Description:
Layout: H1 2-12, H2 15-18, H3 37-41, H4 53-68, H5 74-87, H6 90-116, H7 120-152, H8 162-167, H9 177-189, H10 193-223, H11 234-240
GO cellular component, one term: nucleus
Keywords: DNA-binding, Nucleus
InterPro entries: ChromReg_NeuronalGeneExpr, HMG_box_dom, HMG_box_dom_sf
Amino acid sequence: MALSLARSLSTKLSISRVLWKTCGNACVVQVANKQTLTEELGLPPLPKRPSSAYLQWFNSNKDRFRKAHPDLTFKEQTKKLGETWTNLSLSEKEHWTQLYRKERDVYDKKYEEYMKRLTPQEIASLKNLKKKKADEKMKRHIRRERKKDNLELGKPKHPGNAFTIYLLTLDRKELPVKEFLQTAANMWRQLPEKEVQMYRDKALRNREVYKKELHEWEMRMIREGRSDLVRQHHQLEDLKRTPQRSIRLPSE
């Protein structure tokens, strides 16, 4: 049961991160409503950019293709449609290309008119917010790539805290994740101190093992030229300047 629960929760919430500091607090999952740039700035909505020629062709053909190939997964169907589009002749693509160009001309005019109605301050705010969002998107991409590298290179996973260990002993049953976490947090606060201490002791032991394994992994990353994956603490910077033969694990 515990293994099934761990898999279920890690898929949806990555519990080691979500529950990092939840020992004394109710677990509340917050989901922010996504806003457009203009909504964030309180401006009228921008004209909608037209779909590319390929996307318009794709949307026009996807239902028929899926009915003809029900055995394929969505990913496989999308790949096959992409290959079909690539192999179309220029004349076969012409209809969709012309359709896109017409819609793009209309869009460009609407966009130009829209920008003329904005004040210089509003235009500056819109440009700044666009840049901010682009920077945030790039940072998210870098984090995803780093996470992927960490996984492939075997970075030790943080074992979580006492509450995380307790959570894995529970049976979620059919409860929604949010309700389950809130219930578990309430149950945790009602546990006897002796039982709570047992989980704390286990978490402490797990943390000590994790720290040692992480230290070894980070030293290996430095030796292999992947210091970009290592925490930027001064003691690790010292390791970079230390000859490999003199590197020693800390005594237990």
